[in-house]
Structures are given as structure tokens and as C-alpha cells.
Amino acid sequence: MQKPLAGLTRKNLVRELTAGVTLLAIAIPLNIGYAQIAGLPPTAGLYALIVPTIVYALAVSSRQLVASPDAAAAALVASSIGGLAAAGSADYATLALAQAIICGVMFLLLAVFKLGFLANFLSKPILIGFVGGLALDILVSQIAKMLGVKIDSGGEFVDKVVGLVTGLGTANAWSIAISVGSVAVLLLGKRFLGQVPWALVVLVAATVLVVAAQLGDAGVDVLGEVPAGPPALTWPIIDWRMWLALIPSAIALTLVTTAEGLLVSRSYGEKHGYPTDPNRDLFAFGLGNIAAGASGSFAVGSSTSRTAAMDQAGSRTQLPSLVLAAGTLLLLLFGTALLADIPSPAIGAIVGVAILPLLGIKDFAMLWRTDRFEFAVGAVCFLVTLLVGSIPGIVVAFVLALINLAKRAANPAIDVLEESGEPGDSLLDRAPKGEVTAPGIIVIRLAAPLFFANGSVFTDAVKKAVRRANDAGNGPVRHVVIDMEAVTDVDVTGAEAFEALLGWLEREKIVLSYSRVRPDARERLVELGLLGAHATFVTNRAAITALEKEDA
């Protein structure tokens, strides 16, 4: 097992500390914005950068993955808790703590029982659609904040759009000016000087402008007083029915974080040549979320953007996360007065620019070009998440995943092999080039387990190949050889379809033989009565030749 802060040496200590300062500059403004998206006070976002970050950094196997609330998690928190309590109330904050703790327990269970594979059901199109729907919902709220228009940020997407459009007449000119300037600096700065923490620059400059010009009196909304002091250890006390009501949203948060977090962790580990342990990473997410729920924050996920920023800064350890925790604690102890006059339009601009990539416009275009069905999967998930809600969105995501899986499983690769190898070659070395392997003989390979979704497809393919070979005029087919190397299992429904095929072959006076049957598959065939004691087995060209002579 890797030690905490693996990869840290004297040579890279200064670089890692510098990367930590950069991470601090990036994370503080974003977490303030994400807390507002979630319907929580700014301190909830800042508290997430202290105890949860320390616990996660010391427990995780990844040397680079940054854990923090992100835009998708914040939107999920708002949409799921908004129907249970009023945003900004004490009950709302308590539910957010409980939700984080449930997520933590789920992560721990996934780690202990090695169930991280369940997140694989969230394929890329599903994640694109789900996160994109959340991102667009967030973007509408941030645009309203940038314009100085008051809308119900906890309402449905359509209501938000209607509120934004009807409220355009109340937009504040100074808010618009601050937003336009902030967006310009963020986009141009990222393009030409990507290493500079432009979010912090925007925050400082906008705050100085608001204070100097007294724009608060001109209608520009500001963050307001932020309570000073470190996070206090706490525990949510709620009715057991409320705990149960939070489980669906906690499942959604856990699965999305698992799918994205493990993928990012593995990719950076492979990129830089250090080992990662998925179960340990899930365990770290579990501890981090329980710490978040016990220290006044909300659900913690993986931050792809901050991880990428640390990678570009040359960081290869978790030391920047510890620097982030220390810097945030100092800010809460001594610098909260600096946060009171931060203008909301600047925060909206920072969050809006940060979530633009989450809309998935390029990803949807790629799906449209490469696979229309997967594009449709992503689009449906996007629309359900946006118009119905995040929880229905995740349910639809799983249904679509199962449909996609069944669709692909029901159409496996079925090859009719033509003999083209040298003497002694196995059937695996023969390319699918034609219908008849040798006069009167067909070899067919099924590249999948034989089960309920593809049993009839396989039997129909065999019959079709036999009929085509007979129609080709090369003589009647007398032998069918099933290449079983890729058939790892057979279920009862698949066995019934196969049994019907055996009857059809017998009526057509065609002898069935098997090639390369796996030991476990052979046992299964015997159990199902599909493999008698006198079954014929062939393995190479010599066996095919023997069948030819037998047929002659």
C-alpha cells in the first residue's frame, strides 16, 4: 500500500507547495459559487476544503486527484434537497450534512465489497447527458446572477428560464458590466496565460471596484458577511424518514463520483506511471464525505478541472491539497472580512465559465458523428435531467444503459470462417472470408456467451449460413463446426434455442461438431444436455480434412 504523500521528495517540495498556492487561488472562489448553487452558505463550500480534503488526501491512492464539491454535485444537492426543505434554512443545511454522510457510507460499502464496477453502467453518453443537463440548469441561475436579475434558483428549469426572461427589465447595468469584464478576463486569460489564477484575479479586481465605487449602493449584489472561525464538528439529527428520502439522491451522487473519479484517477496514474487502487480511492471518498457531513459541508466528489490544473502545474503528490486546507483555514480565521464585498456577478461569471465545458457540446457532436443511438441515449438523459429532475435522470440513465447493453448483447459478432491457415493452425487463425470453410463443411464462431438475448440470433445465423452455402452450388453442407472459444457461458434460454438448432440440423442430416470448448463451458453444456458422450470435436485443419474424407 502506498504511504500518504507518496511521490513527495526534497527535489519537488517547492514545486508542490507552489502548486498548492495555485490550487488555493482556484478553489476558494469556485467553492463559494458551488455552495451558492447548492443553496448553502459560503462557509459550506469553504469547510469542504479543510477536514474532508485532509482526510481524503491522506487516504487516497491517487497522487493527483483533487476531491471537492463540484458543479454537478452542487446541482444535485440543490435539486434533491430543495423539495424537502427551504433553501437557506437550518433544516436544509442539516439535510445536506446527512446526504453527505449517506454518500460516505455508500462509498465505504462499494470499497469493502468491491462494487465499483456498478458505476460502469454510467457509460460516457449517459454521463455526458446527465452532467450536461445539470450544467445547463446551473448556467441559467448564474446568468441571472450575472445580470442582477432575481429568480428562484431552487425552482424547475422552465420556471427559471421564464423568471430570467420576464425579469430582464430589472437587470442592473453595473452587474452586467462586471460580468462582461469578468468573462472576458477569464476566457482571454485562460487562452493566453493559462498558468495565472484568473478566477482569483477577477474576484479581487471586482471586489476592489465594488468597494471603491460603492456599487453596493447602486444595486450590485454582494456576498455579505461570512462567519469567521474553523468548522465545528457536528452530526445531523433528522427523522429516519428523512434519512430514507435522501438515499436516492445519495446513490446518484455516489455513482457519478465513482464513474468520474475512478476514471480520472486511473488515467493520471497510467499517464505518470504510478499505481492506483480503485477500492482505496472509493474508501477515501467515503471517509471524505463522512468528514464533510460531520464538519458543516456537503457532498464531496472529484474535481476534473482542478486535477488537470495541478497536473499542468507539475504536481505529482497530494501536498497541494494539504496546502489548500491550511490556506482555507487561515482565511476563515483571519480573512473573512475580505469576502463580504465580493460581487455576486463576478462569482456567477467564474462559475458560469467553469461549467461551460460540462455542457458537452463537443461530446454531443462527436456522438452524432460516430453513433446515433448513443447520441440519442445522451440526449434523452440530458432532457430528462433538465426538465424532470436529477433523480429521474439517473433512473433513466440506468434504464438506457441496460437497453444499450441488451441491444449490443443481442447482436454479437457471428463469423463464418473460411479455411485459410497452414496445417496445424487453429481455427482462431482463420479470417472470416467466406461462407464455406471446406466443401460440405461450415465453421461458425460466436464471439459472446450464449444467453437469452442472443440465442435465437445465433441459431438463425447458423441456418442462414447453411442455406447460403447450399445455394452457392458447392455441394450440400454436411458438417457444421461451432467454434466455442469465446462462449464463456450458456443460460437456460440460450440452451433451449441451441436445442432447437440441434433438432433442425438433425432433420437436415447435418452433423454438428465443436471446436475449442472451454472446460467450464463444456461442463455447462453437459449440465444442459447439449453435449453428449459421443460429441465430435475438431481443432485444426487435419480435423477438417478428416471430416471431408468422412463426408466423401
Give the helix/strand class: mainly alpha
Low-confidence stretches: 419-436
Could you estimate the helical fraction of the residues in percent? 55-70%
The biggest beta sheet reads:
5 strands, mixed
Overall pLDDT metric: 85
What separation lies between the terminal Cα atoms?
65 Å
Radius of gyration: 30 Å
Strand content: 5-15%
How many β-strand runs?
7
> In sequence order, what are the helices and strands, one letter per element?
HHHEHHHHHHHHEHHHHHHEEHEHEHEH
Strand and helix layout:
Blueprint: H1 13-37, H2 42-47, H3 51-59, E1 66-68, H4 71-81, H5 90-112, H6 124-147, H7 157-166, H8 173-192, H9 198-213, H10 240-272, H11 278-293, E2 301-303, H12 304-312, H13 319-334, H14 344-355, H15 361-370, H16 372-387, H17 390-409, E3 414-417, E4 441-446, H18 455-471, E5 479-483, H19 492-507, E6 511-515, H20 519-527, E7 536-537, H21 541-551
Explain what you see.
The strands form 2 sheets. A 5-stranded mixed sheet has the order 3-4-5-6-7, sandwiched between helices. A two-stranded antiparallel ribbon has the order 1-2. It is mainly α. The model is unreliable at 419-436 (pLDDT under 50). It has 2 domains: 13-405, no CATH class; 414-551, STAS domain (Transcription Regulator spoIIAA), CATH 3.30.750.24. It has 21 helices and 7 strands.
